[in-house]
Write a structure and sequence with these properties.
The chain is mostly helical. It has one domain. It has 14 helices and no strands. The radius of gyration is 19 Å and the shape is globular. The N and C termini lie far apart (40 Å).
């Protein structure tokens, strides 16, 4: 398979119908590492909003179980999408996600913003640091997947397009980004988790590298100073060098999709393993479309 063969395949697909398959090709074949980095940046943007970080700080999940919290978020997204959002596996993951969030009173605007970060974060990262930018079909597929996620979570007023998600994100951050000590505590706990993936002597460098890739409004909201120009330039140059190297590599074979390798679950996971320990004792609720269908709809 040539390096651009899969891109030609994606361009022949219909994102409105094939969004789940396009998302699978993006995240498991074309940009597995870059997609994860974009999602990781999306996590960090959430912490710039005190209303969100105060809740996350209160749960202490990042301080006590940072690696598990990170893995669980990635794995629930994987479970929802891997067989298709409307598959039994995808719908079970959505019910479990709603069970976890159902304990908290979270404003719809916050749900919409977090959803927007999962669209805009990967797109901006891949366009800047990926081995090629996303094509129009891939961008639309990201938006369609988020729309489907929003519908399964009962989130209201979800945008129809990528441009709508981007406008939502930028306007929300302009209005809601502000420093709070909770922002920095949650962000620092997440950086410690990420740095723990590397040998101890490299961890300070990894932390500086990560901070050098964040924009100034986010850094201010998290309580970190902007990194010096040499650090920002070096971090960007290293990622662009990686992109050139990846561009020259063969395409990932169909038989070798990139799948999550969570450190918290070296021997595999079940859906009930994901999330806080108390979640499994909460009742499952039907998804919005099941509730609308009335009595007799399938439950988890």
């Amino acid at each position: 398979m040539g390096r651009y063969s899969r891109l030609r395949e994606i361009r022949r697909m219909d994102p409105a119908r094939d969004y789940a398959e396009i998302l699978r090709l993006i995240s498991q074949y074309e940009f597995p590492w870059d997609y994860r980095q974009g999602v990781s940046v999306a996590f960090l943007r959430d912490y710039g909003v005190p209303r969100i970080s105060l809740l996350l700080d209160r749960t202490q999940e990042f301080e006590r179980n940072g690696q598990k919290r990170y893995d669980d978020t990635v794995l629930i997204g994987y479970e929802m999408a891997v067989d298709g959002f409307d598959s039994d596996r995808g719908r079970a993951a959505a019910r479990h996600l709603n069970r976890i969030h159902g304990k908290y009173r979270i404003p719809n605007d916050d749900f919409r913003y977090v959803l927007a970060t999962t669209v805009v974060g990967p797109k901006r990262w891949i366009d800047r640091y990926g081995w090629r930018p996303l094509c129009a079909q891939e961008v639309q597929a990201l938006a369609e997947a988020a729309r489907k996620t929003g519908a399964m979570m009962g989130i209201e007023d979800v945008p129809d397009t990528y441009e709508g998600f981007e406008r939502l994100l930028d306007a929300y951050e302009e209005r809601m980004f502000a420093y709070d000590p909770a922002n920095r505590r949650v962000a620092s706990a997440t950086f410690r988790t990420m740095a723990s993936w590397y040998p101890r002597p490299l961890r300070p460098l990894v932390a500086r590298f990560a901070l050098a890739l964040l924009d100034e409004p986010l850094l201010r909201a998290l309580g970190f100073r902007p990194q010096p120009r040499w650090a920002r330039t070096s971090a960007s140059a290293a990622l662009r060098l990686r992109a050139r190297c990846v561009r020259g590599m063969p395409a990932r074979p169909r038989r070798l999709p990139a799948r999550p390798r969570p450190r918290s679950y070296p021997f595999g996971w079940r859906l009930d393993d994901l999330g806080p320990h108390w979640a499994r004792s909460r009742p499952l609720e039907p998804l919005p479309d099941e509730a609308a269908a009335g009595p007799g709809t399938r439950r988890g």
